[in-house]
Write a structure and sequence with these properties.
The structure holds 2 protein chains of 2 kinds. In chain A, the strands form 2 sheets. In chain A, strands 6-7-8-3-9-10 form a 6-stranded mixed β-sheet, with helices on both faces. A 4-stranded antiparallel β-sheet of chain A has the order 2-1-4-5, covered by helices on one side. Chain A is α/β, with parallel strands linked by helices. In chain A, helix 3 runs parallel beside helix 5, helix 4 crosses helix 5 and helix 5 packs parallel to helix 6. Chain A is built from 9 helices and 10 strands. By secondary structure, chain B is mainly alpha-helical. Chain B has one domain: MetI-like fold (Orthogonal Bundle), CATH 1.10.3720. Classes of the chains: A alpha/beta, B mainly alpha. At the A-B interface, helix 2, strand 6, helix 3 and helix 5 of A face helix 6 and helix 7 of B. Bound molecules: adenosine-5'-triphosphate and magnesium ion (MG). Adenosine-5'-triphosphate binds next to strand 2 and helix 1 of chain A.
């Protein structure tokens, strides 16, 4: 980012990342720096590699080339093997919250247990403390009243808010959102956006893949347009969304503003 | 023909001990086949071909041949080498037979869980094994309740096949009583009723468990 403070380690650094699925090159040298407390939106047409990039940050996709750092610690470690790497990546992932398009709540656990499972089992938190912590985060997403309910009895918007609470309960350094509202009925989008806005206010570092241009413009400090596995354009949202430099960005934005509103 | 149930009363202790043996076999085989089936399923899905192919072969073998034949193989086959009580052979034979059937079901239910569940767990920082333990296996188990329940109901009825190798379960116990009282039908009727009642209890338990887990799916 252009406003980088030289004395501080960036929260996320993506350097020259390449990724292929077989013969299909999906990421062709991506660079991105996200400073502490900043929010970066990633936009682009379907198949441009947005999800692959976000999943690479969490190491759900293994990149072929390049480096990804979280708070100065390298996420991908081609030099590490087997159990040593498993331990390393489990530790790294505890500091990253990931929110999926299809929520992926654990259906066999109550809402509260969804939120407290990881703190209890991974941080050794006792039941009582975990319960308090879980309730605190459910409160924050407005679902304390649903603590004992199971995911099958929640609406899509509620599910996604629980999924956010579940990720937050590990007190991550960064939150990754992959089209968190794409699977929702239109009337349920706002309640999730509201939670994300409240995180923004608290200066949570966030990487957001989204198709909602208005939201992206509003909430982010930096916007990035991907196409065919490369970054076509990036910049501060005011300029990016009103007066982009590249023709491809302009036509993408035009198409999406038309279809969204 | 007139029915006379008095011999059944006379030999009631024999029948009761038969029911006891059947019960013990059912419980042991039930636990063995469910826990074993789950292990076989997990191992055959999450390991390499060297391990999983032999496992699949044994599942296939147990599912495509008759239980009685499997028991004879075990009983007379093992009997060539070592002396094992018929009860142990019976429990092992029935156990492996239903372990194969249960494994087949667990394999299908584990496969039916979307990859998103695995990824969500991993993204929180859970390792592979903990993800299986806390997320995948419990969900597979819940999804398997109806079919595993059916298998267990079939299994209880199949404990009677063990009479063929001389295990003193309910049917075998009654055979002795029949041979001295000459009243086969009375005994058959009573035994059928006993199996029917056991079945009722099991179906009740199964549907309760299904209801208890329905909202966790
Ligand atoms: N596991 C995979 N195996 C093979 N190809 C894949 C895999 N994952 C993604 N791809 C391909 O990689 C390309 C980029 O996919 P990706 O999901 O990153 O796109 P996206 O920008 O997130 O698109 P969308 O807006 O539709 O979510 C697509 O062509 C997709 O088909
Ligand atoms: Mg995507």
């Amino acid at each position: 980012m252009s406003t980088q403070n030289m004395t501080e380690t960036p929260m996320v650094e993506i350097k020259n990342v390449h990724k292929s699925f077989g013969d299909l090159k999906v990421l062709k040298g991506i660079d991105l720096t996200v400073d502490r407390g900043k929010i970066v939106s990633i936009i682009g047409s379907s198949g441009s590699g947005k999800s692959t990039l976000l999943r690479s940050v969490n190491h759900l996709e293994v990149i072929d080339e390049g480096t990804i750092l979280l708070d100065g610690v390298q996420v991908n470690r081609p030099d590490m093997k087997g159990l040593a790497f498993e331990r390393h990546i489990n530790h790294i992932r505890q500091n990253m919250g990931m929110v999926f398009q299809h929520f992926n709540l654990f259906p066999h656990l109550s809402t509260l247990d969804n939120v407290t499972l990881a703190p209890r089992k991974l941080k050794g938190m006792d039941r009582k403390t975990a319960r308090e912590l879980g309730m605190e985060y459910l409160e924050r997403v407005g679902l304390a009243a649903k603590a004992e309910v199971f995911p099958s009895h929640l609406s899509g918007g509620q599910k996604q808010r629980v999924a956010i609470a579940r990720a937050l309960a590990m007190q991550p350094k960064v939150m990754l959102f992959d089209e968190a509202t794409s699977a929702l009925d239109p009337e349920l989008v706002e309640e999730v956006n509201l939670v994300m806005r409240s995180l923004a206010k608290e200066h949570m570092t966030m990487l957001i893949v989204t198709h909602e241009m208005a939201f992206a413009r509003d909430v982010s400090d930096w916007a990035m347009f991907m196409d065919g596995g490369v970054v076509v354009e990036e910049g501060p949202p005011d300029k990016f969304f009103t007066n982009p430099d590249h023709e491809r960005t302009r036509s993408f934005l035009k198409k999406h503003l038309d279809s969204n509103h | 023909m007139e029915l006379d149930f008095s011999p059944v009363l006379t030999y009631l202790p024999t029948l009761i001990s038969g029911v006891g043996v059947t019960f013990v076999i059912a419980v042991v085989v039930g636990l063995f086949s469910v826990v074993g089936g789950l292990l076989v399923a997990v191992i055959s899905i999450y390991t390499n071909k060297v391990v999983s192919w032999p496992l699949r072969f044994f599942i296939w073998l147990f599912m495509t041949t008759p239980l009685l034949l499997q028991l004879y193989f075990l009983y007379f086959g093992l009997g060539e080498w070592i002396l094992i009580p018929a009860l142990v052979v019976g429990v092992l034979g029935l156990g492996f037979h239903y372990m194969a059937y249960n494994a087949d079901i667990f394999i299908a239910t584990i496969r039916s869980i979307t990859n998103g569940q695995y990824e969500a767990s991993r993204s929180l920082g859970f390792g592979h094994l903990r993800t299986l333990y806390y997320i995948i296996v419990p969900q597979a188990f819940i999804r398997s309740v109806p079919q595993i329940g059916n298998n267990l109901i079939l299994m209880v009825k199949d404990t009677s096949v063990l009479s063929a190798i001389g295990v003193a379960e309910l049917v075998y116990a009654s055979q002795y009583a029949i041979s001295v009282s000459f009243r086969p039908f009375e005994f058959f009727i009573v035994i059928a009723v006993i199996y029917y009642v056991i079945n009722l209890f099991m179906e009740f338990g199964q549907s309760r468990l299904e209801r208890l887990t329905a909202y966790r799916r």
